[in-house]
């Protein structure tokens, strides 16, 4: 069965608005979750590491004030894209580890118009 | 930080032939090397992985080899089938629950 669930699967928003993406671990607790971004025909690039109860760790070049991460519980991490612009249009995927194996959410296709 | 290079970027093989994809990594502390298959618009799916305490691992038509001295690892798919067509990514991490660094991907096309 699924290990991690991500919602929504796709979203279209207007430029300047904010979008929240949820990542839930199913039936187990995840103190750490990872957020990746994938542009068309490109690889997955790590954006940030979400840590339960503490601040996220952002990769170099990722704006922490633009991509807000909240990991308020052991089963839920959220990524909020603030003031979205067309260049933020991408495929966002979360990931968690269980038993030393990485599992991925379904991904969220964000289109900013 | 870790840097993972992957070759080739595209690969076309006749159905039934073998396909080989190669990756190199830079971080000598990396010890976990998974391979993922990703279909368009879908999440990556783990197809095989290898840890640094072994040099080779096989699962039916799929095998992975690891050379830690040279810092490279390879994916081998034998008896390819049309359903093997997809994008394949290698990745590396320091193990445990550490972040993954992905290769650039290989688009594999199986020609019927």
Helicity range of the residues of chain A? under 10%
Low-pLDDT windows of residues of chain B: none
Mean pLDDT of chain A: 94
Overall pLDDT confidence of chain B: 96
Largest interface: A-B, 20 and 19 residues
Roughly how many Å is the radius of gyration of chain A?
13 Å
SSE sequence of chain B, one letter per element: EEEEEEEEEEE
Main sheet specs of chain B: 6 strands, mixed
Sheet/helix structural class of chain B: mainly beta
What is the succession of H and E elements of chain A? Answer: EEEEEEEEEEE
Shape of chain A: globular
Helix content of chain B: under 10%
The beta-strand count of chain A equals 11
Shape estimate of chain B:
globular
Q: Structural class of the secondary elements of chain A?
A: mainly beta
Keywords, please?
heterodimer; A: 113 residues; mainly beta; seven-stranded mixed β-sheet; four-stranded antiparallel β-sheet; 11 strands; B: 112 residues; six-stranded mixed β-sheet; five-stranded antiparallel β-sheet; globular
Folded structure, characterized:
The complex is a heterodimer of chains A (113) and B (112). Chain A is mainly beta and 113 residues long. Helix content of chain A is 0%, strand content 56%. Chain A is built from no helices and eleven strands. In chain A, the strands form two sheets. In chain A, strands 2, 4, 5, 6, 9, 10 and 11 form a seven-stranded mixed β-sheet that branches. The termini of chain A are far apart. The relative contact order of chain A is 0.33. Chain B has 112 residues and is an all-beta fold. Helices cover 0% and strands 54% of the residues of chain B. Chain B has no helices and eleven strands. In chain B, strands 2, 4, 5, 9, 10 and 11 form a six-stranded mixed β-sheet that branches. In chain B, strand 9 and strand 10 form a beta hairpin. Classes of the chains: A mainly beta (113), B mainly beta (112). Chains A and B meet through strand 5, strand 9 and strand 10 of A and strand 10 of B.
């Amino acid at each position: 069965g699924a290990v991690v669930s991500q919602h929504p699967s796709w979203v279209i928003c207007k430029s300047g608005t904010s979008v929240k993406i949820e990542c839930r671990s199913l039936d187990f607790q995840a103190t750490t979750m990872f957020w990746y971004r994938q542009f068309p025909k490109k690889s997955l690039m790590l954006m940030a590491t979400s840590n339960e109860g503490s601040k996220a760790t952002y990769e170099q070049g990722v704006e922490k004030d633009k991509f807000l991460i909240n990991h308020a519980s052991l089963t839920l991490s959220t990524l909020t894209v603030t003031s979205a612009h067309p260049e933020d249009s991408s495929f966002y995927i979360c990931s968690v580890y269980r038993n030393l194996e990485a599992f991925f959410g379904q991904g969220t296709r964000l289109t900013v118009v | 930080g870790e840097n993972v290079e992957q070759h080739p970027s595209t690969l076309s093989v006749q159905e039934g032939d073998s396909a080989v994809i190669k990756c190199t990594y830079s971080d000598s502390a990396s010890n976990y090397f998974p391979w993922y298959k990703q279909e368009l618009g879908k999440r990556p799916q783990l197809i095989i992985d290898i840890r640094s305490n072994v040099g080779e691992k096989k699962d039916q038509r799929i095998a992975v080899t690891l050379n830690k001295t040279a810092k490279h690892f390879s994916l081998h798919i034998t008896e390819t089938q049309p359903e093997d067509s997809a994008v394949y990514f290698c990745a590396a991490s320091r193990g445990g629950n550490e972040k993954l660094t992905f290769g650039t991907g290989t688009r594999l096309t199986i020609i019927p």
